[in-house]
Design a protein that fits this description.
By secondary structure, the chain is mostly helical. It is built from 7 helices and 5 strands.
Length: 151
């Protein structure tokens, strides 16, 4: 979804989600296919099957891993997240040995349950984003993530 936002702009993409959802789904399918091809190229180039992989947060995984995030999630409903984003994440999970979702900002918390229902998602890393969220105690959210099996 963030790739489409980079192409269309947030406002235009938000309108597209309502006005032409089938076109958005086709575009997301193309983005997912390109991601699969890119991951395969990196896996071959860096020999993930032999050496494993490390993500930007320093988390090592034997084999292939992914660390998706969706900044657009803060701007869409839970229903839209399940309709447009979850299928992409499920597809991405099929391409990797481990998937660690980067949940970013208080506006994204509304999608926690949907994320935790994705079988191929292993863990969720939470960051409060900038602003007031940094000063809050997020221990209850960490416990909820643990209780939902993705800690």
């Amino acid at each position: 979804m963030d790739s489409l936002a980079a192409i269309r702009g947030n406002e235009r993409l938000l309108v597209d989600l309502v006005d032409c959802p089938d076109k958005v789904k086709r575009a997301l399918d193309q983005v997912c296919s390109a991601h699969t091809e890119m991951l395969e190229a990196y896996a071959q180039l860096l020999d993930f099957d032999t050496y494993g992989s490390i993500n930007v947060e320093g988390l090592y995984t034997p084999g292939r891993q992914s660390r998706p995030q969706c900044d657009m999630s803060c701007m869409i409903s839970q229903k839209m997240f399940r309709e447009f984003v979850v299928p992409c994440l499920e597809r991405e999970a099929e391409d990797v040995d481990a998937m660690h979702y980067h949940l970013d900002g208080p506006g994204a918390i509304q999608h926690l349950e949907a994320l935790c229902e994705i079988e191929g998602l292993d863990t969720i890393s939470w960051v409060p984003g900038s602003g007031e969220g940094q000063a809050q105690d997020w221990a209850m959210l960490h416990k909820k993530i643990d209780d939902l099996g993705k800690g």
